[in-house]
Design brief:
The complex is a heterodimer. By secondary structure, chain A is an all-alpha fold. Helix content of chain A is about 50%, strand content about 0%. Chain B is built from 14 helices and eleven strands. Chain B is an alpha/beta fold. Chain B has one domain: Alpha-Beta Complex (Amidase signature (AS) enzymes), CATH 3.90.1300.10. The chains are: A mainly alpha, B alpha/beta. Chains A and B meet through helix 2 of A and helix 10, helix 11 and helix 12 of B.
């Protein structure tokens, strides 16, 4: 991930950080990207659609 | 040492109070004196409610003298992590953003503690909004570890861990989104119980990540956690995640006999996947051996990869935390400390589809653990793979050897107990994980281990500062 591409993503999300924050933040974003890539590699079928639990309405 | 009032367990203090042998006022005064002497060094409390606590203790004393004993927490001094809302009392989240935040209502759990007659001593140090790390750029410094003042306590409930180990409260409340009850429990050598998701209300607790947040007790012993959980466990319609289940008698389930109990040791987690240090592994093996001597059948068990659970936990936590904080953190990032700011802002980079699919995978991995736990009653492993670190960069928190996050993902009950001490005299840890809503079994195992191991007799050798 280039500095420019990270900056573009920050701009899209309204993220403003100081220069001192940037090295550690870039590492965290790289970690998010690694975790996201793993999630996308996981085989989920259409039948798994009910796997997410929503809060049931209360009577 | 057991006669030092500040080191009494809740069970012991309560028995004395009920018998009329100990005044809640005397007990509260002992803690206030201890706090006055040690808090300037430990930074465990951000706010001490001296006058209010004494008034509550006097009221408890009168009620008990009049025959109105309410139960084991009546007249017992308790500290609250400073993300529990307290009516008319500042609840800051350790953040400059909430420095002047004064809630109108108590959190449900605080109300339950008050109704049980507990004395609220004050508000305890936390990582900012329960995320980030031990920061020195917040309005208050992080708590220090009573076993070694140069060491961290673990977090985010760092004041709760420090206060319990130092004898600054009889019991404390923590919260746990990725390990924040069990991590400071591990590094401070106390007992910390993350209840089953839904068993204890989060209403009125500043949220970090809705689907992972848990509220629970941090005490010196598992028995004390059971006594507190008895008061805290209750269905709360005001918390959408609250479960409407029958609450068992947690203390009645305690006992040394573990025969017929099956214990799985998640060995691959701490030997190969995220290797713990040698002392931690040796202590865990010794503890597992002791559970066997108490009658349990102990065998290794293979769980789904720790890294899968841990990645899901972090990804979901960061995304939900950003959703909660977006308005404030994008408008006034300077009001957050650097550690929390960076971690929360990283959540902005999680795509919606990835978050939703992470929750779908979470359901599968939870089902996988439920299936594996058909063969065992509890699973054990270290809580954290190393003892307390010195203060330092983020790597010093040693998330690489954390074993807590899988059970935030699954919502399982999980208790951290002290499993021994390192050669340097720092506490080591064992985590005991149970099936959903079988918190009583987890606490029973922790209690039996603590009584048989004798580890609860050792306290940090903090010397009171000399008077000037």
């Amino acid at each position: 991930m280039t500095t420019q591409s990270l900056q573009d993503r920050m701009d899209e999300n309204g993220i403003v950080l100081s220069e001192t924050d940037m090295p550690a933040f870039a590492e965290m974003v790289a970690d998010v990207d690694r975790m996201s890539a793993w999630v996308r590699s996981f085989e989920l079928s259409y039948a798994d659609e009910l796997a997410v639990n929503f809060v049931a309405p209360k009577a | 040492m057991a006669n030092d009032l500040h080191f009494l367990t809740i069970a012991d203090a309560s028995a004395r109070i009920r018998a009329g042998a100990l005044s809640p006022v005397t007990l509260t005064e002992a803690y206030l004196a201890r706090i006055a002497a040690l808090n300037p060094t430990l930074h465990a409390f951000v706010l001490v409610l001296e006058q209010q606590a004494l008034a509550e203790a006097k009221r408890a004393e009168k009620e008990i003298a009049a025959g109105g004993w309410k139960g084991p927490l009546h007249g017992i001094p308790i500290g609250l992590k400073d993300i529990y809302n307290t009516a008319g009392i500042a609840t800051t989240g350790q953040s400059a953003l909430f420095r002047d935040h004064v809630p109108a209502e108590d959190a449900t759990t605080v109300r339950l503690l008050r109704e049980a007659g507990a004395v609220i001593l004050g508000k305890l140090t936390t990582y900012e909004f329960a995320i980030g790390g031990p920061s020195f750029d917040l309005p208050w410094p992080p708590a220090r570890n009573p076993w070694n003042l140069a060491r961290q306590t673990g977090g985010s409930s760092n004041g709760s861990g420090s206060a319990m180990a130092a004898g600054l409260a009889a019991g404390t409340m923590g919260t746990d989104t990725g390990g924040s009850i069990r991590y400071p429990a591990a590094w401070c050598g106390i007992a910390g119980h993350k209840p089953t998701y839904g068993l204890v209300s989060r209403k009125g607790v500043l949220p970090l990540a809705y689907s992972l947040d848990h509220a629970g007790p941090m005490c010196w012993t598992s028995e004390d956690c059971a006594l507190m959980l008895q008061v805290l466990a209750a269905h709360d319609p005001a918390d959408p995640g609250s479960a409407n289940v029958t609450v068992p008698d947690f203390a009645a389930a305690l006992g040394r006999d573990l025969s017929s109990l099956r214990v799985g040791v998640a060995r691959s987690y701490f030997e190969t996947e995220a290797p713990a240090d040698a002392e931690t592994i040796a202590a865990l093996d010794k503890a597992a051996g002791l559970l066997g001597k108490l009658g349990a059948k102990v065998a290794d068990i293979a769980l789904a990869p720790r890294a899968a659970y841990t990645d899901l936990c972090l990804m979901i936590m960061e995304a939900e935390a950003f959703a909660i904080h977006e308005r404030h953190i994008t408008a006034t990032p300077e009001l957050y400390g650097a550690l929390a700011r960076r971690r929360i802002m990283a959540g902005s980079m999680v795509r919606a589809t990835d978050y939703i699919n992470a929750q779908r995978i979470r359901a599968k991995l939870t089902a996988d653990l439920v299936a594996k736990m058909h063969d065992v009653d509890v699973v054990v492993m270290p809580t954290w793979g190393v003892p307390a670190s010195e203060f330092g960069e983020e790597a010093s928190m040693r998330l690489d050897v954390a074993f807590t996050m899988p059970f935030n993902v699954t919502g399982s009950p999980a208790l951290s107990v002290c499993s021994g001490f390192s050669a340097e005299g720092l506490p080591l840890s064992m985590q005991i994980v149970g099936r959903h809503f079988e918190d009583a079994t987890v606490l029973k195992v922790g209690d039996a281990f603590e009584r048989a191991s004798g580890l609860r007799d050792r306290r940090p050798s903090l010397d009171l500062p000399q008077a000037a």
